[in-house]
Amino acid sequence: MSLGVLIADDQALMRAGFRLILEAEADLEVVGEAADGLEAVAAAQRLRPDIVLMDVRMPGLDGIEATRRLTNSDCTAKVLMLTTFDMDEYVYESLRAGASGFLLKDVPPEQLVSGIRAVVSGEALLAPSVTRRMIEEFVRRPPSTAARPAPRELERLTAREREVLVLMAHGLSNAELAREFVVSEATVKTHVAHVLAKLGLRDRVQAVVFAYESGVIRPSEG
Fold this sequence. Notes:
This protein is of the alpha/beta class. It is built from eleven helices and six strands.
């Protein structure tokens, strides 16, 4: 079964390049293209792709606002942000808008392809160059009250699930969590799924955002 991909970028040559890369993969299918944010939102709602490759900077409605509209709708597509600009404000706002990952446009083709698969499967995906800065920025900023789940939702977590949330926020992978808890990766995946479901979160990236903005991770722990 192939994964449906929608490409949203205002540059036709960039869209063509992405399409060429993706259509070489047997498990990926480009289901549509969009040249701006409004087109991206409409196309995603109509075509129901598994993932949207979303350019950050587009005319009219930018990629961040388009992502926000999609994640606040009934659209279930994951959003992978792509940009030529390694700038912190884009990263933070993209993740707060609901993006599931963030990559620079100049990544090698194989990294783009593996990134799409990772995001669709629920793994966190951030360009290595921005991951540590993102965490540092979250612990420097005062916690935001915007869109923070009620305390009772945190109380639904078991002690082990809370540990999983904290370690996910520190960037540990499933394999690293399995080693930490001396359990199988299948058990870890179950814990992660429970954490996301109980907190009403889309994926691991949103779990990182939640952990820092809700105060689960304190500045002293950054």
